[in-house]
């Protein structure tokens, strides 16, 4: 049991170190994938389009860097900026969403990439604290398992 718990501890430790070392590559990869999701955004309910809509609604943002990123997409040519960018769903007609100058007043102008990364970075201390607490419990479990194993082997030949 101690060896299994040690293996899990090492895997988590390696994952944390790799995540810290490659954090810049993770950000760049996220930005690339978010841009790709915008280019492939469509009206059908696929997972990538739903994810873009959820991010935009939740974080009150639009596009990757800003709302003008939508102008480079095929979706914009057909329907304009998506409804998920609107500040108010009641006051966001499709005609205004096709005109970038009118849309600026009706949609969130900030990009999602900076908001997502700043939100993730602000929550990192919480994640690190929880991870540290779990690691402490794992180390205590390893220590207690080793103590139990030693106690069992020391008392193996005791007369009953």
Automatic annotation (TrEMBL):
InterPro entries according to UniProt: Tetraspanin/Peripherin (IPR018499), Tetraspanin_EC2_sf (IPR008952), TSN6/7_LEL (IPR048232)
Any one annotated GO CC term: plasma membrane
Sequence intervals crossing the membrane: 126-149
Gene3D superfamilies in the record: Tetraspanin (1.10.1450.10)
Signal peptide, first to last residue: 1-19
Function recorded in the entry: May be involved in cell proliferation and cell motility.
Name of the protein: Tetraspanin-7
Organism of origin: Nothocercus nigrocapillus
Gene responsible for this protein: Tspan6
């Amino acid at each position: 049991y101690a060896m299994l718990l040690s293996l899990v501890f090492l895997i988590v430790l390696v994952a944390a170190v790799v995540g810290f070392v490659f954090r810049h590559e993770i950000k760049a990869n996220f930005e690339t994938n978010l841009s790709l999701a915008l280019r492939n955004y469509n009206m059908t309910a696929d997972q990538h389009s739903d994810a873009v809509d959820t991010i935009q609604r939740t974080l009150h943002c639009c596009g990757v860097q800003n709302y003008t990123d939508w102008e480079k997409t095929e979706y914009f040519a057909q329907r304009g900026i998506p409804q998920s960018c609107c500040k108010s769903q009641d006051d966001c007609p499709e005609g205004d969403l096709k005109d970038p100058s009118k849309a600026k007043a009706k949609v969130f102008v900030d990009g999602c990439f900076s908001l997502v990364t700043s939100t993730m970075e602000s929550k990192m201390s919480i994640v690190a604290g929880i991870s540290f607490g779990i690691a402490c419990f794992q180390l205590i479990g390893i220590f207690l398992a080793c103590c139990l194993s030693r106690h069992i082997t020391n008392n193996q030949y005791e007369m009953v």
